[in-house]
Amino acid sequence: MDQVAAQFTGLLVSFPAQAISDTAAKAKAQAYFIALEGLPAWAVQEACRRWLRGEPGPNKDANFAFAPSAPQLRILADSLTADLRMHRLKMRRILDAKVRVELPEADRARMVQRLRDVIAPHTNEGSA
Predict the structure, then answer these.
(1) What is the pTM (predicted TM-score) of this model?
(2) What number of other Cβ atoms are within 10 A of residue 81's Cβ?
(3) Which residue in 8, 20, 75, 113 could disulfide with 24, CB within 3.0 to 4.6 Å?
(4) How many Å apart are CA 83 and CA 40, to the nearest integer?
(5) Are the C-beta atoms of 11 and 52 separated by less than 8 Å?
(6) Closest to 75 in 3D by CA, of 86, 60, 90
(7) Is the separation of the CB atoms in 70 and 34 below 8 Å?
(8) Residues 44 and 73 sit within 8 Å (Cβ to Cβ)
């Protein structure tokens, strides 16, 4: 979490801000920790980089004259991990998939013949 703190702290000090008390600064930092909880450090770093470059991602109404709010930074960082989450979900589905058992050819042929025997009386072949 130290890497994440360093990333958003570096971003915040890059923008002008009013002087705030230590209590307010701690509360603000806590808000960012809560908002960024669970995100990988690389995603937070990239979100900070993109904000500084004026790349809004999903934050279309962003004002880059100011530091992002905690939720804005979360949305941007979260959007960077979306593809990975989708790949993880696909991999989980693959890993959880049930194995389809293929019948040996002899068993398959026997079952096909049984099916034909059941269907034959109801088709033209059965009445000929």
Answers:
(1) 0.65
(2) 17
(3) 20
(4) 14
(5) yes
(6) 60
(7) yes
(8) yes
- Neighbouring CB atoms inside 10 A of 35's CB total 20
CB 70 within 8 A of CB 35: yes
Cα separation, 2 vs 127, whole angstroms: 81
Count CB-CB contacts under 10 A for residue 108. Answer: 11
Sorted by sequence, the CB contacts under 8 Å of residue 94 that are 6+ apart come out as none
Q: Band of the pLDDT at 35, cuts 50, 70, 90?
A: very high
Copy the structure tokens of residue 113. 């013949």
CA distance 26 to 1: 15
DSSP string computed for 74-85: HHHHHHHTHHHH
* CA-to-CA dists, residue 87 to 77, 84, 95, angstroms: 17, 5, 12
Q: In this model, does residue 16 exceed pLDDT 80?
A: no
Residue type, 36: L
Q: Confirm if 67 and 15 have CB atoms less than 8 A apart.
A: yes
Radius of gyration of the chain (CA): 29
